[in-house]
Design a protein that fits this description.
Layout lengths: L1 E6 L2 E4 L4 E9 L6 E7 L6 E7 L5 E3 L7 E6 L4 E6 L8 E8 L8 E2 L3 E6 L1
Parallel strand pairs: 2-11
Antiparallel strand pairs: 1-3, 3-8, 4-5, 4-9, 5-6, 7-8, 9-10, 9-11
């Protein structure tokens, strides 16, 4: 089992920045990839970005490219999401996720952290 705890959410004005952090504990040696998802009001939970844990392959959804940066510190079992030039459409609960494989359903989820962007 892997446990995930996010932090760093909050309220920011449009154009501002936030940095989300996620710390993994438990059987972290089993992690193959980690990612950030978000779920806005009335929407499904969707991927924002993910990163392979043991290599540097990264994926972003189109709407965050050039604004968000996903990064990791494998020595500390931490995942980050630097979010710049935030806009109200980025308002959502953000979830950290981990997976023991690089495809298929994600195995582990954090509790989520709220990001609210005011116009």
């Amino acid at each position: 089992q892997v446990q995930l705890v996010e932090s760093g959410g909050g309220t920011v004005q449009a154009g501002g920045s936030l940095r989300l952090s996620c710390v993994a504990s438990g059987r972290t040696s089993s992690i193959a990839r980690m990612g950030w998802f978000r779920q806005g009001p009335g929407n499904a939970r969707d991927i924002v970005a993910n990163i392979r844990w043991n290599e540097d392959r990264i994926y972003y959804i189109e709407s965050v490219k050039g604004r968000f940066t996903i990064s990791k510190d494998v020595t500390k079992n931490m995942l980050f999401l630097q979010m710049n030039r935030l806009n109200p459409e980025d308002t959502a609960a953000y979830y950290c996720a981990a997976d023991e494989s690089i495809i298929g359903q994600w195995d582990y989820w954090g509790q989520g952290t709220q990001v609210t962007v005011s116009s």
